[in-house]
Amino acid sequence: MTALPSAVPAPTAPSALRIPVGVPGVPGVPGVPGVLGRCRALVRPALREAVGRMHPWMGEMAAYSFGWCEVGGTPAAAPGGKGVRQALAVLGAEAAGAPGRAGVPAAVAVELVHTFSLLHDDIMDGDAARRRRPTVWKAYGTGPAVLAGDALFALAVETLAAAPGGPRAVRVLSVALADLVRGQADDLLFAARPWRGPGRVRPAEYRAMAGHKTGALLGCAAALGAQLGGAAPPVADALDRAGRHLGIAFQVVDDVLGIWGDPAVTGKPVHGDLRERKKTYPVLAALDRDTRAARRLAAHLDTGEDLEEAAALVESAGGRSAAGTEARRHLAAVEAALADVPLEQGAADELRALLEYLVRRNL
Fold this sequence. Notes:
Blueprint: H1 32-51, H2 56-66, H3 84-95, H4 104-125, E1 129-130, E2 133-134, H5 136-140, H6 142-161, H7 166-190, H8 203-228, H9 233-260, H10 263-266, H11 272-275, H12 281-287, H13 292-303, H14 307-316, H15 319-339, H16 345-360
Helix pairs in contact: 1-3, 1-4, 2-6, 3-4, 3-8, 3-16, 4-6, 4-7, 4-8, 7-8, 8-9, 9-15, 9-16, 12-14, 12-15, 13-14, 15-16
């Protein structure tokens, strides 16, 4: 398994989240890529069927965003996306003791909502590329991309409402979506706030934003799968908490990679988040300390000059190590949530392996 960057070392204490993935000595835990592939194969027909019900133009944009086709509808050579949220929904159902197919409506609905959010996020952030291809708004236009996102959201609600127990499940999805929107709003507002002074963004505020923007839908996927699989409310609630903590851990690690990651792995230029002056966790944690390095960092961020020096100042001010501590803290919270309720052992082991993989690999 690929380790976190050196600033985010693996926990040294024994933990179920340290289960090796796909190696001898861990019965019943296949390699995570195999788990993802199995879940994608289970969900894909239903996801394609749902997209096929869309208006043809909306359907083409949806298929393009999923990596199924190119502009104009020509099939893509290599469909992209790992299907992480799909897998969380399927494993949530299986962890509740139900067949994986019970979680398929949840997997489809959450995947549609996730894709809808990406279409709109790319427009708000002005991002021209995703997965090394033009984003939907760049390929088709801003108005069409907004409309396609709206259509995906409507289709998600329709899909989930038609499932057994759908009305109750739609309420769970609605809560997650409200949290996602709240997190996105906070993220946009952070950009206008100063680096230093009483109006600066505190690490705790960032943590709450990441829990909403990134964690809400991850938790929703696992919880909805479990709910459709007949799980008792405490089980679904525990899976939701695990997903939300996972979202924070994943976002913090992604922030580390956004400054110090290998461009060949991340697909982003080195120091890319500093170049874009993003308020990421390592930077905010560094600035929260009253040190000479933190004060020098603030000056560098105001000018946008010497990104290599700025990255070194983030590290010397403790931002990189603070990110490691934060990620490990939320990994421990994930395990605590999963240990709190009875789960089917095989599926629970696969779920734990997948959750660790999400934090220890760059998606």
